Please model this.
Amino acid sequence: MKNFTSVKDVKDPGGLVKKALEIKANPFTPDFARGKRAGLIFLNPSLRTRLSSQVAVQNLGAEAIVLDIGKDGWALEFQDGVKMNGSKAEHIKEAAGVIGQYFDVLGVRTFPELKDRNTDYSEQLLNAFIKYSGLPVVSLESATRHPLQSLADWMTIEEHWKKAEKPKVVITWAPHVKALPQAVPNSFVEWMREAPVDLTITHPEGYELAEEFAGGVPVEYNQMKALEGADFVYVKNWSSYEQYGQILSQDESWSFGKEQLAVTNNAKIMHCLPVRRNLVIKDEILDGPNAIHLQQAKNRVYSAQAVFAELFR
Ligand code: AN0
Ligand code: CP
Model:
């Protein structure tokens, strides 16, 4: 594995899930990557990714250094060939070029702007870090994907499912007050297509995910119908891909509560976090026995550890 930016970077995704579960059983291997360094660069906020990546790197015996480049770094120019007489102080060629001198592996978090779809879906920022740092790069959530999250999600499903038949997994849109990226649902769908599960997507019309992620996966526009018999429900808001970055609905009948849970097969309820309580998911679910969001968050350590272990080699 050269970089970790998508499920496509991984030869055997199911094997990586197994590896991460093995690491969870025995997480402390301080001699594994002693003397190695990871740089973790954040252009956007983070709680889980930031902390779990640092814990993961330390569990491997390596060191992690975090830079909130969006807050503490120089403002970065990503366009080629421009005269830099505006507000941007440093070009990505130098910034990433320098970062490349200091570390063995680089992690980058960069959200989409949700203004121009082509710019976001070209992964301009992530690709610039890959190109100019020359390092193996781990996506800490990019414009279109969040693969460390999806790997932890798959681990969590695997831990909770012991039957021979495939579980029914439903990803449902839920309302939100802000326009959020499609990265988490894109990525969850991209990984679940490789997993032994039956996947259904449900959302109001207009929230279809890009064909490259969701093409061929059944979409049911009636949330209650989609949820019938579900074993796992992944709740997440995202903004429209079609009418790019727009909020098309704030229909609170899609908020996940006990009415929704009642039609499932006593499903486990998942969310990547941060979650807005009583808007996306109701207290009655988050504080109840079906919610497994904290297990997902815990598994972020081991999913990151499995990935950094590969890239430190
Ligand atoms: C981000 C998102 O939806 O992509 C990060 C999730 C891990 N969420 C928010 O901005 C609330
Ligand atoms: N789930 C997740 O990536 O959370 P953070 O944005 O807090 O890192």
